[in-house]
Amino acid sequence: MEATVRKEYPRPQFQRNDWLNLNGEWNFQFDHQNAGEKEGWYKKTDLNQNIIVPFTYETKASGIHEETFCPYVWYQKSVDVPKEFAGERVILHFQGADYVTKVWVNGIFAGEHQGGYTAFSFDITNYINEEKENNLVVKIEDSLSEHQPRGKQRWIDKNFGCWYVQTTGIWQTVWLEFLHETHIHSVKTTPDVDNESVEFEYKLVHVGQQQNLTLKTAITFDGQLVKDFSLQVDREQASMKVSLASEIHEWKVMQWSPEHPHLYDVEFTLYDEGQELDRVQSYFGMRKISIQNGNILLNNVPIYQKLLLDQGYWEESHLTPPSEEAIILDIEKTLEMGFNGVRKHMKVEDQRFLYWADKKGLLVWSEMAASYAFSDDAVQQFTEEWLEVVRQQYNHPSIITWTPFNESWGVKNIFINEKQQKFTEGIYHLTKAIDSMRPVIVNDGWEHTVSDIITLHDYVEYGDEFLNRYRDKEKVVGNDIAFNKFKHAMAQGYEYTGQPIIISEYGGIAFTSEDGWGYGDQVKNEKEFLDRYASITEAIMSLDYICGFCYTQITDVQQEVNGLLTEDRKPKVDLSKINEINRNKPVSV
């Protein structure tokens, strides 16, 4: 295997030139008895195995492929800091590591992070020796706890139902970044389509005595300058809202949509008395999501969502996309089949996936990985990690919906339990406090509390049965009709208030020749598959009060074999025929 895998820049919406990819071969060791810290493994350079980062030890791509759970694992890599970066701050970034990460540099403890699905970093400057090779050691602690956000990771020693082999350790890119001590930490970008403007909220790391910092922002579209401006900054935070409609921008402000995924490039440059301290490349999309009269509107026009459930698993590498090409292939296959978006299920997806969704015009529902127990610890862990997910993914125009909960997982008594209901209300309002512009679905599937969209899951097999159940909207949303094993649309104490309605899981059709399972009876051939797919999908599309659907699912995942593609991305049916059925309902209504 190549020395470096996943070579692309890992954070494309906030990109700098000075960085070093640490993916590739590392030393590795299991620590079943948790003896490593006591025995000083953080000083070792001779761990007893090799692993290919960023693939977890459970995967074939890692070179280990051991599926037995181990709660403590260690990584070691020798790292040189390139001489051209001498004197700069050295930041160690992890795009994802599950679940508790501890870092030592040259035997000195450098920091700890908890959470399996968010990016995080450590400033390791004070521990680096620029004159020689540095010993970087990482310990990952994981568990099988149901109180820990884990998504589709199993918590027993074998796969069951729709839960799969666990993910332990580093599962996304690891990299170094080299910065001036005063630099741009982040920029929150908020488009305002109605007023043809965009707001930037800047956060700086401001160190030292600089009093004359200037922050320049330059916006371009298709290589042509649209707007540039400068701010004098003397503190850690600043903001600016600017109009894109000007004499410079002679054409209409270009909006982002699936049909026309227009993106504006933007460059942020920080100066101290004319000397450049930092330069960041980014982009944004002018896109608005709103709700009106039971419809979801994109840029003030109702849109019919045709989504695919996408769990983001690969045969050789599980949750980690094996390559940039693999990411692009999944998106292109989704669009080829006539879907306009995905519900990223139980996974916080790789930043490169969101970048390509932005570029290609794929709508995305961003969903949190569930925990499966309700406790004070579960509430705290879930809340902290989810809010960081929202902050980190906020700028992506492709994300149009936040989905923190699914099917009452982690809040199994939400139908009647007031504490669990209040938890989902709290997450709803906290999400809105960070992002007021996107709808939030707090319990996708059933038993909704304060959701902006009412979503229903139902794996009924044929259209006539679906229409018999769902033809009378008021009986469904009024809890007079149960569905999907006696579930109801609303939790007790909550009433439907006119929200849009989407069937956000259905289908799941599998073939009889496959090992594993799907939903309902298995089909024998392509004709049976397409007849059933058309029957249920066309029934959903025939009901005017339903404004979208999400079919289960894009690919097989381990024992769940109900994908439109196999796990290695081979089509099971003629994809153009899926597209033809999907076209029966226009996207804009």
UniProtKB/TrEMBL annotation:
- Parts of the chain that traverse the membrane: none
Q: Which Pfam families match?
A: Glyco_hydro_2, Glyco_hydro_2_C, Glyco_hydro_2_N
Residue stretches making up the Glycosyl hydrolases family 2 sugar binding domain: 21-140
Q: In what residue span(s) does the Glycoside hydrolase family 2 catalytic domain sit? A: 290-580
Glycoside hydrolase family 2 immunoglobulin-like beta-sandwich domain location, by residue? 182-287
Give the UniProt keywords, A-Z.
Glycosidase, Hydrolase
One GO MF term attached to the UniProt entry: hydrolase activity, hydrolyzing O-glycosyl compounds
Q: Which GO terms describe its biological process?
A: carbohydrate metabolic process
Q: Does the keyword Hydrolase feature in the UniProt annotation?
A: yes
| InterPro entries per the UniProt record, alphabetical | Beta-gal/glucu_dom_sf, Galactose-bd-like_sf, GH, GH2_Domain-Containing, Glyco_hydro_2_cat, Glyco_hydro_2_N, Ig-like_fold, Ig-like_GH2
Q: Which domain of life is it from?
A: Bacteria
Family from the record: Belongs to the glycosyl hydrolase 2 family.
Q: What is this protein's record name? A: Glycosyl hydrolases family 2
Q: Supply the source organism for this entry.
A: Fictibacillus solisalsi
